[in-house]
UniProtKB/TrEMBL annotation:
Protein name: Essential protein Yae1 N-terminal domain-containing protein
UniProt feature coiled coil, ranges: none
Essential protein Yae1 N-terminal domain residues: 24-62
Family from the record: Belongs to the LTO1 family.
Phylogenetic classification of the source organism: Eukaryota, Viridiplantae, Streptophyta, Embryophyta, Tracheophyta
Length: 143
């Protein structure tokens, strides 16, 4: 009987290690899911804000240029007016409510390209810089 009791004691010790390993793994996995979701939300919020900010910049430029065209239709060449119209169409085409849409990057790249073309044609030193990135902003967003 003593041999069986010894074997049971060793077996329960081996099982104890396995039980603790499984519990630790399970707890770590759950913690990782929660942390990953929270970090994903923060990154998504930041990325969405940056995309919206850039779209807003282009929208503002388009609105100003369209106002100039309304006041003086001869102020810009037909070519520049066409590029401004194309920018306007690209902003309207941006899938704001569907950020996982594959065309997001394509539309944004097209906007940037058209903006550089208009800027160069008009010889304007205008550039999208973005919201100033400070250490405090990063801390507030959890980065």
């Amino acid at each position: 009987m003593e041999t069986e009791e010894m074997e049971d004691m060793f077996e329960s010790s081996l099982n104890l290690e396995e039980i603790h390993f499984k519990e630790g793994y399970s707890e770590g996995y759950e913690h990782g899911l929660v942390q990953g979701k929270e970090e994903g939300q923060q990154v998504g919020l930041k990325s969405g804000f940056e995309a919206g900010e850039e779209l807003g910049f282009y929208r503002g430029c388009i609105d100003i240029w369209n106002s100039v065209i309304q006041l003086d239709p001869t102020r810009f060449s037909d070519r520049v007016q066409k590029m401004i119209k194309q920018m306007d169409e690209l902003v309207a085409k941006y899938p704001v409510m569907d950020p996982e849409n594959e065309s997001v990057q394509e539309v944004m790249d097209g906007l940037r390209l058209k903006f550089r073309a208009v800027r160069a044609t008009l010889s304007v030193k205008l550039e999208y810089i973005g919201y100033p990135k400070t250490a405090q902003d990063s801390k507030e967003l959890g980065f």
